[in-house]
Design brief:
Helix content: 25-40%
Distance between the termini: 53 Å
CATH topology: Leucine-rich repeat, LRR (right-handed beta-alpha superhelix)
Mean pLDDT: 82
CATH architecture: Alpha-Beta Horseshoe
Number of domains: 1
Number of strands: 8
CATH class: Alpha Beta
Order of helices and strands: EEHEHEHHEHEEEH
Low-confidence stretches: 171-182
Strand order of the largest sheet: 1-2-3-4-5-6-7-8
Largest sheet: 8 strands, mixed
Number of helices: 6
Structural class: alpha/beta
Radius of gyration: 17 Å
Shape: globular
């Protein structure tokens, strides 16, 4: 009884699979078209999506991916995205990610990991105020969201305190220590 499936492929072909197969699948990591074949009609709670080409990192396509993932028979609680983002700007990437908390209102954990491209400390994704506002917006449409991991920092939600940073990227932390003379 297979419950976890990880497809390490840069192929973007649909997978032909019988709807009665993999009925206990609870966790899957795959490219978008494979997810569209694997998630609908199955009890998938944890999803990882590999966007190995930046043309998939658009608001339109991430909305389609999110709607496919939402067809799980149980609420999707965890979403991890690995994406090639070169030559995209950080603002474009963040706009594309907004579809996921909107379409998956039961998410508790969301993580985004760029696998190519450069995000620098001057990008909007490193600005705590901008990132905080974005995460608050996501939380307003996905009230179950409790943790968000972005390249620069990890945010955690606590009922009494709201959103706070619990971890900052190693490069950023090193730069801060250098500025403080430590």
């Amino acid at each position: 009884m297979l419950s976890v499936l990880e497809l390490c492929s840069s192929s973007y072909a649909r997978i032909a699979i019988d709807r009665q197969a993999l009925l206990h699948l609870s966790s899957v990591f795959a490219p978008p078209l494979a997810l569209a074949s694997l998630v609908p009609g199955r009890p998938v709670k944890e999803v990882g999506v590999s966007l190995f080409h930046p043309t998939f990192v658009t608001e339109e396509l991430t909305s389609i991916i999110a709607r496919d993932v939402a067809l799980s028979t149980v609420p999707v609680e965890s979403l991890k995205i690995a994406a090639s983002i070169e030559p995209l700007e950080a603002v474009e990437v963040l706009a594309a990610l907004e579809a996921f908390p909107r379409e998956l209102p039961s998410l508790t954990a969301f993580a985004f990991h760029p696998i190519s491209g450069r995000i620098t400390p001057t990008d909007v994704i490193f600005d705590p105020a901008t990132t905080h506002a974005l995460i608050q917006c996501w939380h307003s449409c996905c009230t179950t969201l409790m943790s968000v991991t972005l390249p620069a920092m990890m945010w955690v939600y606590e009922n009494e305190l709201g959103w706070s940073v619990v971890s900052r990227g190693n490069d950023l932390a090193s730069e801060e220590r250098a500025e403080l003379g430590r």
